[in-house]
Amino acid sequence: ANCSTAASAFTSRVVTTSRLAGSRGAPLPGMAGVTLPASLLTEVAALRGAETASIQVSRWTEPFSPGGLTFESAMHAVAIAADYAPVAGLDRRSGGGARALTSNVVYRIPVNSNVEGARRHWECRAWTSAGWSTAGCTETATEDGGTTAVCTCSVVGNVAVTIGTSVCGDGRRTGGEECDDGNALAAVDGCSASCRVDSNWDCGGGTTVSKDTCQERGATPAPKVCPVGMVGADCRGFCRGTVTGGECSTIVAYAKRASTVLINGTEGGAVALPSGERLDLPPGAFDGAVNITLSSFDSLADVSATPGVTPNGPVLELSPDGLLLARPANVTVAVYAYDSLRYRAEVYTMASAGKWDAVPAVGAGGGATAVASVAHFSLYSAILIPRPLTTP
Predict the structure, then answer these.
(1) Could you tell me the residue ranges of all domains in the chain?
(2) Is 308 exposed, middle or buried (0-12, 13-18, 19+ CB in 10 A)?
(3) How far is CA 60 from the centre of its chain?
(4) Closest-CA residue to 49 (of 85, 77, 78)
(5) CATH topology for 230-386?
(6) Which residues pair with 385 in a beta bridge?
(7) Regarding predicted confidence, which is higher, 59 or 342?
(8) 306-354 pLDDT, tens per residue?
(9) pLDDT of residue 164
(10) Cβ distance 109 to 131 under 8 Å?
(11) pLDDT band of 64, cuts 50, 70, 90
(12) 3-state secondary structure of 146
């Protein structure tokens, strides 16, 4: 239901899913402006052992307790209740503050100005017990010509967009920066330590959420080499067949679902898709902070070089390609319906062109998923292995 009051300029919609214990992972209706992961209500039910849970998505015209911040948007709130009793910490009325999730909520928030065109340093903030914090949310993209900010958050609660100070070297070209290549090195690399373009260099491609790439004038660009199995000028197409000279022998598939989260390797974290595919990184998986992307392609793996096995799920790409992990991560891939009495589902990775190899399994992911331990980023997919025939 939608409602509004003159006093609070408040609109909301409530989405309810019942008997969660018997329908875990059921598709969850979303609301324009907020994309809710399918697992969200399941998580809430698990918190309270509830069979009924509800989500209320709200929009407040004025964020509360601004604390000296410059707000660029209205406040979007996601409040959750189980058995119609508020879950502590998820709702301002029950104490305030955001609560961490194992899945991501994507907020598409209209902003007051064209933050992309004006190169404004916008920030996603969630309301916590300590006030408005950037922890738990990542600035993912701008849409609608720069008038919509996309925040990917691992928390539910109250989220809004504020304007911060441009920082040279953070990989976001904002403010008066001529370039920002993600570092503040004094060495000549095209973009100086003060974010000015070096003499005889060209820089471009940077946005308010992504860094510039720089090329010395007259230098011959290095030929672009796509990861194994990927094609196209931007290497975003998956080729199920053979790649020769950068061309695919069959129809190229492009990602139907994708999510990017900036993860601190020391702390670890997770990236998840509404379809149930996900990556769980332990603390100490890598050094520094890296934008981790999961992309899901509705195309089967070509395992013709491995007789006796059958592809049975979308291909999942982990990027940046080739990232080596100091500690293994768990990857969960989607599995299409199959006869579990005749087959078992395993995770395979594309080790080289045209060759897929098995990855060590980690427990059971359930009938719709398979889970494996991975030490590097590549392409992964579910493969069916025939079970040994038993004699009655």
Answers:
(1) 10-163, 167-220, 230-386
(2) exposed
(3) 26
(4) 85
(5) Chondroitinase Ac; Chain A, domain 3 (2.60.220)
(6) 344
(7) 342
(8) 778 889 999 999 988 888 999 999 999 999 988 888 888 899 998 766 6
(9) 92
(10) no
(11) confident
(12) helix
